[in-house]
Amino acid sequence: MSPLLSVRDLKVGFGRDPRANEVVKGVSFDLDAGKTLAIVGESGSGKSVTALSINRLVDFGGGRITGGSIMLNRPDGPVDITAADEPALQRIRGREIGMIFQEPMTSLNPVHTVGAQIEEAFRLSKGLEGRAATLAAKEALERVRIPDAAQRLGYYPHQMSGGMRQRVMIAMVIAANPRLLIADEPTTALDVTVQAQIMALLAELRAETGMSMIFITHDIGLVAGIADDIMVMQNGVAVEQGPIDAVLDAPQHDYTRHLLNAVPHFSGGKSVRSDGTRAAAAEPLVKVDNLVIRFPAARGLFRRSAGAVHAVDGVDFDLMPGETLAIVGESGSGKSTTARAILGLVRATRGRINTAKGRRARPVQMVFQDPFGSLNPRLNVASLLAEPAIAAGQRVDARLRERMLFLLRRVGLSEDALNRYPHQFSGGQRQRLCIARALMLNPDVVVLDEAVSALDVSVQARVLDLLVDLQHEFGLAYLFISHDMAVVERIAHRIAVMYAGQLVEIGDAKSVLSAPQHSYTQRLIGAVPAIDRRRQTFKVDTTTVPSLVRPRGYEPPPARWRDAGADHRVRLED
Amino acid sequence: MNYITQRLLTFPLVLLGVSLLVFFAIRLVPGDAIIAMLGTEAGLLTPAQRDSLAAYFGLDQPIIIQYGRWLAGLFEGNFGISVIYGKPVLEVILSRFPLTLELALLSMFIALAAGIPAGVFAATRADRPADLSVRIFAMLGQSTPSFVVGLLLIYFLSVVFRALPAMGTFTPLFEDPIGNLSQMILPAITLGLSFAAAVTRISRSAMLDVLSDDYVRTARSKGASQRDVVWRHALPNALIPVVTLSGVEFGYLLGGAVIVEQIFALPGLGRLTLDAISQRDYPLVQGSVLFIAFNFLVVNLLVDLAYAALDPRIRLGGK
Amino acid sequence: MQQLKGAIAAIARHPSGRIGAAIILIFLILAGLGAAGITPHNPLKQYVVDRLKPPSATYWFGTDLLGRDTFSRLMLGIGESFLIAFASVGIAATAGTLIGLFAAWWGHLWDGILMRIMDVLLAFPAILLALLIVAIQGPGVVTSITAIGIVYTPIFARVVRAPALALKAREFVEAAHTFGSSQRYILTRHLLLNLIAPLTVTITLALAWSLLTESGLSFLGLGSQPPAPSLGVMLAESKSMMTRAPWLMIFPGLTIMLAILGFNLFGDALRDILDPRTQGRES
After folding, report:
1. Which burial class, exposed, middle or buried, applies to A429 when counting CB atoms under 10 A from its CB (0-12, 13-18, 19+)?
2. Which of B213, B212, B188 is nearest to B112 (CA)?
3. Which residues 97-136 of C are in CB contact (within 8 Å) with B?
4. Are A286 and A455 in contact (CB under 8 A)?
5. Does C66 touch chain A (CB under 8 A)?
6. Model confidence over A532-571: pLDDT tens digits?
7. How far is B54 from chain A (nearest CA, A)?
8. Rounded distance, CA C40 to CA C35, Å?
9. Residue B245 at interface with chain C, using a CB cutoff of 8 Å
10. Interface probe, candidates B124, B128, B215, B316, chain A, greatest A C-beta count within 10 A
11. How many other CB atoms are found less than 10 A from the CB of residue B163?
12. Residue C245 and residue C238 in contact, taking contact as beta carbons nearer than 8 Å
């Protein structure tokens, strides 16, 4: 039986002379009906452009197919998509090839209701109008497990969460019952547990309809569970491709091996650090005691707080010298707010944060998430590094310059970086600059707020290694905020899990990761994609994060804890 | 705070500020307040008459009281008496207002009717010759002051067509629509041209932005045609900045009408204000400046409300 | 310095930028020559014998009713218009930037108060506010500068406030707080430096608008007074003789248009070059 989709030597370029600026340089693959192909690569690999070429959407972004063929097998004969004209393509798009995208927020029209957009999908593919379309839209929402479907039809995209918006996108796509679904990094912008829900939904729909799928991602572990075949791309070419078991078990190409081995992968606690010991007698560098942070929920005409957002509701932990405590959680957990409170960027409503003041005024420094946003684009590196020193009252002299050069070398950057500007560095290099800047004042504690989340996976690995080295060399303690369990496993000595503003589990990394006790921790760890979970069936579940808004004067019931090991405490659930 | 409520609350505050500004600006005019109010006739008064007049007008009261009385007078519709015309200021203003308003509205209409399609057209043919010509015309249009346009139009009409437009009179719209429009069409084009150019440029750039937005890509992936994409998806989003701009520009139209009324000798509110200044009719100046500013604020408020109607993110607030 | 050289090169590459910069440069030279007294003829002298002569080799742009050389008068006129434009925009940019910056920085109550005051000023169409100021001060060059300066201050305040608010929330400003950098350091090095881009664009475009408004004011007789040669006044005087001496209208009209066009083109080019989307790109 001939394959559903047959791509031969595909070449795609951009700009005024596409042939001179090729982003995809000759890619070939086949996709059989009912099968799933995963295309894996980092940024710049050409994976997205390949996907966008299959339904020729790349034409609207300034791209041109400069060579090769894309044969789509239809009941009435094959069609070469590269040669098809726009009217023919409009008939194919939606009806035969559907697509979901990475950013559900911007992928939905903000001025149309969700219902109107789903109805449009039905109108374009099946010609449904009026009442029939509305009914079909409601059923589609139910099929993607959105509660109160009839009501949600009237919602606007900005009124829904990221996970729900992605479900709406999926509902729009399956409206037409296409034979091929292209999913371009559909879960990258979502929380881990939501990601698991969406993957489960996709797996379920695929089983129901028998459609084929092309799944684009940078996370090779994610596709282990649903792909039949895999294609690894780097710099516009496919470096390795084949059945998933073959490629993952016996990778042939260096890059594939690099993606599998050098990149942080989650292994359920098997590869945690073994170099940490809590010196029980030592003084904690940071001691957080019953931290409560609430923001007024602006309501009504005169901003009278009808309630409050309980961002952080009673959190205690401490941080010892030389250790890494990771605070993990998803959006709304309160982990970032906690970090900001420790640095004084956010005022605590109640509770105490004690930082051992010793030799210096600011023993705690921070590295932020966005390598673009945390460096002033108009200042050169020398000025950027000098700022903490100037703020501390130091003079800008030769000694300071020596320190800058020393730190630049230590983080792996060359000395001539001093005269350059941030935009001349890559994302990973910029984070190194931020780390150097954080170390200028010789801090005891560095808070890393999702510091590697915006980097490519191979770059992540290198930066994490650097951080571990620096920790050993300078005796630093880290407070590592993250949602990425694979990264956390690699760097944490201890882990604290936060959910809806509360601490639910805290303890030694190995213990927490291999034997999670709290139901949320179990759900979180269960949702993390891992390579050895092939052929896993995703359990469909639609739990949503509870709202953090509480009426005025509400106090949560006092926390009760139990021990589950030498260094492992779990909050009791009610 | 809800967007609409916020706008409705700041509106009276700004109105108050405007009235304060106008009141005290007139008080800054050098010279005696009596002279300001009565003009040259003030020179004929005896000191006793002056004093009793001063008491009558409350000029011996503290300035705050004067402001309060003036403000209270405004609410009753008492804007004072015009020195030139000897009639209540409000009456004079209202007799001239319809012309200026019609001029501004007509210009706005022409500008939008010409500018939006031009901008959309240029955006859909971006970087092609048609786009380039539209952009050049728009750039030239925006760089040409309205009086240059007006003079050029009159010149071409009188020299080329040898048909001088009717000037100096005004036939109300409802009495004689044809006559009215034939008098207003040239001034409206003159005033609207510069705004039309601005609308073209902003429609074009808003459209280009929107066409490269993600949700347009989603619509295409569903199989939507180019027409669907442009009219259903792109335009409602692209119109939002155009609406905001229109509100701001309306103020300039109201003000720019002054120049056009001058060129075409139309008896409108702008010319009234101009004459009032040159003839030192301060009650009239005060009244008409206040009146125009009030109108502008009302239009701005309407535009802000329209903005909320167009963009559900503003109307309903976020999650 | 390196950034400045890069900016100049970028302007030279941009088609509108090239044309705009060229026009502005030519006008500046003409204005300079005029101010220095280097004109083909004495702009104020009345060559009564040669009244209303069309353009010729002697009088490049013709003469007016009093026999004055149009070209020489235009040179002076440009100079005066530019002077008023630069002075008024200078006032507006300084005042407006300070107001917008502090409204954004202090936030809440001060933001509300300052921006409401700006709203009050914005409630007056430009010409109208100028009329009001003329009523107080009387017509003239100083009045024009004051009027336009006051009218454009709220525009700068608005243009500065939005990016300033966004910058306040950027992570490098948060980082500055964690170091304990002084307010002055943050305001100057972090905020102002990054506001230069939108400010430069707005200043250039404001210069264009200022020329437009000023010529309008002169046209109405509220700006510079005769016999000073001002572009608006020359156009006002040309109306009655339009059929007999069209050059009296065409050349001043073209001059104004070109001047405004020059700044508009330059400002557009600047806006394209300084577009934040092209900033922060990886090399």
Report:
1. buried
2. B188
3. 116-117, 119-128, 131-136
4. no
5. no
6. 666 556 666 666 777 787 887 788 888 888 988 888 989 9
7. 44
8. 13
9. no
10. B215
11. 8
12. yes
Q: How far is the alpha carbon of C195 from chain B, nearest alpha carbon, in Å? A: 22
Question: How near does any CA of chain B get to the CA of C114, in Å?
Answer: 12
Report pTM: 0.84
How many Å apart are CA B265 and CA B271, to the nearest integer? Answer: 8
Q: Which residues contact B296 (CB under 8 A, 6 or more apart)?
A: B250, B251, B254, C123, C124, C125
Answer whether A99 touches B (CB < 8 Å): yes
Distance between CA atoms of residues A9 and A24, nearest Å: 9
Q: Facing residues of A77 across strands?
A: A74
C-chain residue closest to B31, CA distance: C136
Contact C157, C198 (CB under 8 A): no
Q: Nearest by CB to B159, which of C215, C243, C256?
A: C243
Put simply, the answer to whether C181 touches A379 (Cβ < 8 Å) is no
pLDDT band at A212 (very low <50, low <70, confident <90, very high): very high
What is d(CA A50, CA A68) in angstroms, rounded to the nearest whole number? 12
pLDDT tens for each residue of A44-65 = 899 999 999 999 999 988 899 9
- CB–CB of A204/A213 below 8 Å? no
d(CA A330, CA A524) in angstroms, rounded, equals 9
Q: Could you tell me if B224 lies within 8 Å of chain A, comparing CB atoms?
A: yes
Question: Residue A471: is it exposed, middle or buried by C-beta count within 10 angstroms (0-12/13-18/19+)?
Answer: buried
Lateral strand order in the sheet of A307-319:
A350-355, A286-296, A307-319, A549-551
- The pLDDT of residue B166 is 60
Q: Determine the pLDDT at residue C280.
A: 40
For residue A375, which residues of chain C lie inside 8 Å, CB to CB? 172
DSSP string over B83-149: TTT-SBHHHHHHHHHHHHHHHHHHHHHHHHHHHHHHHHHHHHTTTSHHHHHHHHHHHHHHHS-HHHH
Cβ–Cβ under 8 Å, residues A266 and A486: yes
Helix (H, G, I), strand (E, B) or coil at A318: strand
Give yes or no for A107 touching B (CB within 8 A).
Answer: yes
Give Cβ neighbours of residue C113 (< 8 Å, ≥ 6 apart).
Answer: none
Place of tokens 């505050």: B13
The β-bridge partners of A449 are: A481
Q: Are A541 and A534 a contacting pair, CB within 8 Å?
A: no
Under 8 Å CB pairs connecting chains B and C tally to 134
- Cα B274 to Cα A101: distance, rounded to the nearest angstrom: 60
d(Cα A30, Cα C168) in Å, to the nearest integer?
Answer: 51
Beta pairing, strands A477-482 & A324-328: parallel
Could you tell me the pLDDT band of residue C133, with boundaries at 50, 70 and 90?
confident
**Parallel, antiparallel, or unpaired for β A324-328 and A307-319?**
unpaired
State the Cα–Cα distance between residues A452 and A471, nearest whole angstrom.
16
Chain A residues inside the 8 Å CB shell of C189: 376, 379, 383, 387
Integer angstrom CA distances of residue A562 from A251, A328, A518, A571: 45, 20, 11, 7
Question: What are the backbone dihedrals phi and psi of residue B86, each rounded to the nearest 5 degrees, phi first?
Answer: 70, 10
Does residue A49 contact residue A61 with C-beta atoms inside 8 Å?
Answer: no
Main-chain phi, psi angles of A88, to 5 degrees: -65, -40
The token pair that represents A261 in the structure block: 């081995």
Closest Cα partner for A442 from A470, A417, A419? A470
Does A160 contact chain B (CB < 8 Å)? yes
Prediction ipTM score: 0.82
